[in-house]
Write a structure and sequence with these properties.
It contains six helices and no strands. It is 77% helix and 0% strand. It has 110 residues and is an all-alpha fold. InterPro entries: Tfc4/TFIIIC-102/Sfc4 (IPR039340), TPR-like_helical_dom_sf (IPR011990).
Length: 110
């Protein structure tokens, strides 16, 4: 599939979310499609908006995607901040996020 097709699909899913703001699945799909076509700024903006507007409903896999992107860019404190925010919402962190926390802390110590 061409990059342009991914981008058009992402825009369509983002429009669905704008029409139905409770449809976080559409937003998650849009986010993954934007990442696939290297629209990282858009990818990050959508994730940050979702975490801000829907902190209790956002899939923890989306928190992990954002944290992973921050860690890939040596922004470990930002990654930890978003993971801790998810934890503060009273949610138990799954193993994949616990690993991300441990990895970020280890890298910061080294």
């Amino acid at each position: 599939m061409e990059i342009g097709h991914y981008e058009k699909a992402a825009e369509s899913y983002e429009q669905i979310f704008q029409l139905v703001p409770d449809n976080l699945d559409a937003l998650q799909i849009a986010t993954m499609l934007y990442k696939k076509c290297s629209q990282f700024e858009h990818f990050v903006n959508i994730l940050l908006g979702c975490l801000k507007d829907h902190p209790h409903e956002t899939e923890l896999s989306m928190v992990d995607m954002l944290a992973s992107l921050y860690m890939e860019n040596n922004m470990h404190v930002e990654a930890l901040r978003h993971i801790e925010n998810a934890k503060r919402c009273g949610r138990e962190l799954p193993l994949f996020l616990t690993k991300s926390v441990n990895l970020a802390m280890l890298i910061m110590v080294i």
